Amino acid sequence: MPKRTDIESILLIGSGPIVIGQACEFDYSGTQACRVLRDEGYRVILANSNPATIMTDPEFADATYVEPLSLEVLTGIIQREQPDVLLPTLGGQTALNLAMELIESGVVDKYGVEVIGADQTAISTAEDRAKFRQAMIDIGLPVPPSATAHTLDEAVEVMERIGLPVIIRPAYILGGTGTGIAHTPEQGRDMAAHGLAASPISEILIEQSIAGWKEYELEVMRDRADNCVVVCTIENLDPMGVHTGDSITVAPAQTLSDVEYQALRDAAFACIRRVGVETGGSNIQFAVNPENGEFVIIEMNPRVSRSSALASKATGFPIAKIAARLAVGYTLDEIPNDITEKTPACFEPVIDYVVTKVPRWAFEKFSGVSGVLNTQMQSVGEVMSIARTFTESLQKGLRSLELGRHGLNADPAEAAYNSLSDEELLAAAAVPTPERIFQLEALLRRGLTVAELFEATKVDPWFCDQILQITEERAALAECDFDAMTPRAWKRAKQFGFSDEQLGYLWDVPAAEVRKARIAAGVEATFKTVDTCSAEFEAETPYHYSTYEDVGEVAPSDRAKVIILGSGPNRIGQGIEFDYCCVHACFALSEAGYETIMVNCNPETVSTDYDTSDRLYFEPLTEEDVLNVIDVELRSSQIAGGPGIAGIVVSLGGQTPLKLAGMLPKGLVVGTSPESIDLAEDRERWNALCARLDIPQPAGGTAATADEALAVADRIGYPVLVRPSYVLGGRAMVIVYTDEDLREAMAEMAASGSLGREGGLSAERPVLIDRFLEDATEVDVDAIRDMYGEVLIGGVMEHVEEAGVHSGDSACMLPPVHLSEATVALLERHVKDIASALDVVGLINVQFAVKQFGIGAADQVFVLEANPRASRTVPFVAKATGVPLVKVATRVMMGSSLADLRQEGLLGNRANGDHISVKEAVLPFNKFPEADAILGPEMKSTGEVMGIDLRPGLAFAKSQIAAGAPLPANGTVLMSLADRDKAAGVEMARGFTGLGLDIAATSGTAAALSEAGVPVAEVVAKVGEVGTNVVELIDDGRVQLVVNTPRGRGSRADGDHIRRAASRNRVPLLTTASAGLAAADGMVDWARHQLRVRTLQEYHRGVTSDQLALEL
Amino acid sequence: MIRPAALVLSDGEVFEGEAIGADSPSGITSGEVVFNTVLTGYQEVITDPSYAGQIITFTYPHIGNYGVAPADHESRRPFCRGVIVRDMARRRSNWRSTGDLEAFLVNQGIAGLAGVDTRRLTTHIRDAGAMPGAFGTASESDLRAAAAAEPGTDGIDLVATVTRSESEHFTSTRDGGKPPHRVVALDFGLKATIVRHLRTIAHVEVVPASTSAADILARQPDGVFLSNGPGDPEAVAGAVGTISGLLGEVPIFGICLGHQLLAAALGGETYKLPFGHHGGNHPVRNLATGAVEITSQNHNFCVADSSIPGADITHINLNDHTVEGLRCRDLPAFSVQYHPESGPGPHDSRYLFAQFDELMDGLHTTEPGPAQGQLLGGATHA
User: Which residue, among A1086, A798, A1088, A819, has the nearest Cα to A966 in the 3D structure?
Assistant: First the structure.
């Protein structure tokens, strides 16, 4: 069946901000869908609030709505655009949920919009646990037996029927309180009694526990002619009990016989047919009992997912792209396989390598969080690695994580387990944590058996034995003399995935020497191809991975090559924004005629889509692996008589590629020189530079000991900002107000403290101590300088939260709304001076603190830091201004002048309308209920959203809706403020009461408000005081907004029970006075104006505020 | 202890590895080198008699992970000459397994080669075609000589080496309702999974490949099944004559070599594919319904398009558009090139056994298979 001609326009919903469990895999899928649907000639209307995505680039859709993903907004978009169909299956859970709301509220019917991909019945059958369970029972598919009980007797009866162990879950309890696994009848009785008591309706769900079973996922596609294929099977190394997003997973399945696999395949097809997913991809999860092969179906996602992105990258079969084509009517056999070009997509990929995905967590950011993995996903990113065998693939994956590990142990960090006894280490490994894989190897090295490991962890013996093979190879290598290594031994070691760093560790030889000796022995990485078909057909797409085999497959090419180093796994502080930058660099270089070569290991991203670059290397971003790519590409050029590598781009992927800059061949790094980058980070040279340029800095100094720190603080005065000089993303940054706090902070960072493992302190790695400027406004400026000296200011952003909150966690506005023209001009002048002094070629980001002294008095400007590289805000600035900053910067790095690019048309004028853009951070506190939901100098957000409108208040209000914390229109605002914020509190409270909201306040705040004449409806007691308890008030749902500014800024600052209650109950929470003021403004504006949605394309053409008058 | 070994192809290409499995007396094992792309099902592949005369290269690197299980044998012993892998599992893990794959190879006298850059080998065969080769611990020159002397499979009657000498009866497993048919299955290299499927509709008597048409008809079967088997259809002694004698007398269903022989008996031609189809992921279109089936395949020879008098092509391969199925217009006979029984492979095409059942019912069904949307009809994971 060919594509549908009865539709013209398609509304696609994106997944919004990056949150734990929903990351840039949906930018990858959405971008593919946009591309495909536009290629097919449809008008694509896109809604997504996330400015850091490629899909929201204005050229990827006909109408791009960077607007909050809410029912109200989507209704507005549908009303305005009248799309023929809505495609909700490519934007994760967010898009699916919104589609359901649009269906249930009657909006799609009212506007005659057809939902394609998966309809209401399919979505609700898959998403509603009870319905799904019943549907599977109806078609005879096994599900874990379960039943509810309302009395203890009933519970005992159910447990006897189902058989122990069981999981007991009280009904209607938030956050899983009272849930447990019972292994004995006594435990069962206790837990049931406890659960019945905890449940408000005295109901518990008792389900057979399948913890410890093997977990598998099948990625299935179906077309409207009912052809079904399995794209990929995935086996989890971590058994059931750990969320698949937190498991190390392997493709293809390793320990299923064909008989068992085909049974799962049949079940998967039966499931997708019963659920009724008409077209597209679905992810279906199974648990298999290792004792007897019994399987149960766990769940299915009727949409593309994180796993489907992984499956696409793992096989070369682009699920999202094909799902989009299927949704508009094609059948699988009508779509060609991109990679072979000759065979159809209606087949099942087979691979001749092993793919391993390893998650990356950020537990160190959230004090109080246990770090134990469970059925709720907690990881913030992941890496994927490809190699010919599992051992090689696993070791590549572990070194891809950038956690200082060079593979599976055999590196300095392995010493961490030395202090534990065998029993302690085995007990530790029995609990799933990020450390488990390393603990398993350490245990095997101590002589424990595969059987013992399986018994304790239920990690399949095949995987344990593979780890043991690494252990044995290590022992053999350690015994072998470095000088006596034969070519065969070198190859064998590399085939087990040992990095040169690991080998160097084993032999106590520098990795560089290992590399030299190995290459001299003739053992070099060979690059094979991901081709969907195990070489049965010729591959047209150069998608490569390294391994150690007889021959490689990289084709000669005579074009000028540019290598772009990607940003590796997503983490807090380095996420999708940098992938956006790398992808833009690719596009710009491609348009300029270069052969683009991408190196990255993050399977979620657009950068690792083989459509993005001319050549894709799915490789760890380590010195060894990157040098291998450079070598093979140089050879490719040499053979073809080409000009070689024209440049390597390291400044767009965050810290990951930047760290490699110094190790790369001299002269190949394009843009700002590594020396200049170092200069900006070297405290003394940077201070000297600022002094020379006459740009004020906050007073400060460095210290390697507590005494030195106290001396600095004594000199500059409290509060001070303390930060280690060697960590990223604001890691461990604190603001301290007293000597005592400063001593404590220094102790944390000392070698013996909790940060000791990250390096400790020394004269080379001192702590930086700066005077913290209270109540200053922080400002970010992004700019580009070309090698001829012209500087282009990309954007000046005013932060909503005051200085002291990490810039990545702070909301910001562009253009600034509270800064005078003179101040902005001064900031821009400083940026130009700094960029020139650093000899920047490309992007630079400079952060300032601005002290304002009111009307008539000049602002005081201090420079905080400069980073001559792409910043997190670059995509936001590009979306806000319509200037493709990264493309321009990339061309500048390759030698073009800004003037050239203006002439060429790449660099146009910035959007000249009156719109204000607000970027707001999205925080993961709801995933970490134990952590304090407070902002500080250490970044904690996982993603961001953008709100655009014609007034600052409207844009801010939109950003809050988009961030999932919409400001209330009525109800009660709970205020509990630090003394220094009480004046601001009065101002915001007037705003709230003016809109008819009630104020509840803790005693001190209430007194201040009453004194200023603001009515306080309820004075609430803090914990420990008599009266209505503040936490109860929130728990009872009587509060619609919380403004709580803590005294002090540590993680133990007061009021954390208030913030926890707000997080727990998902009540919007503001923790700074400035955010409270912005919210009050937003609410006032919001109440006065009607909701208007506009496309990015309109804003870029220019929307003036006259519009607003018309709308009033 | 590692035993260095190598594979030498008849065109001189050398692949290094280490010997696994059984020792071959001379340190040399020769045969036609082919590759198979399945991710699961190595045991079924190795024990499939259709691989007689061949050395099987598995493209998936880890082979042996889930061991071997008695239920997964496709015949009484492996008939392939040897096995080439990237990595042979030293430890198996699966509740069904009773032994290690390598131990099985040793017990069955099958030599193997591990540690080979199987992707390089596969790419070479893809580009140069399946060809004879020799592997083992012998010297490279001896291997070279053996590869040159190895005849391959063209023009050789390999069926004679795999067919059973005595006939064998299998009672039907059909339960309830309809009484089972009686089927005579000609054993050209019959797989156990096919017998299992035939038994769901009939009592099955498996007879040697040399059994004459008269002997078969004397058994008064409701239908005759032409099995899969190894090698070149033109070299199978007597088979075409036998099938000619059966055509029109009794309903016939053929699979793989049985399909090629049926075509030959109808006057069709066969030819050798460059490197054959060996895997479990080949898309085949059922021309009557338009539905695509993902199929299990294992053949080097193929029926020439539009060469078959009196028959229609019913199925084609979507990768290379070769003939995958045919049905006689006026006679009760049909056949497919691929393996609807799976073992290993997908279950998409099992409806063909039901069609054979109906053909024997005398319905001469014109039903071309399940319409799209009913392939599995819900949960039919048998």
Answer: A1086
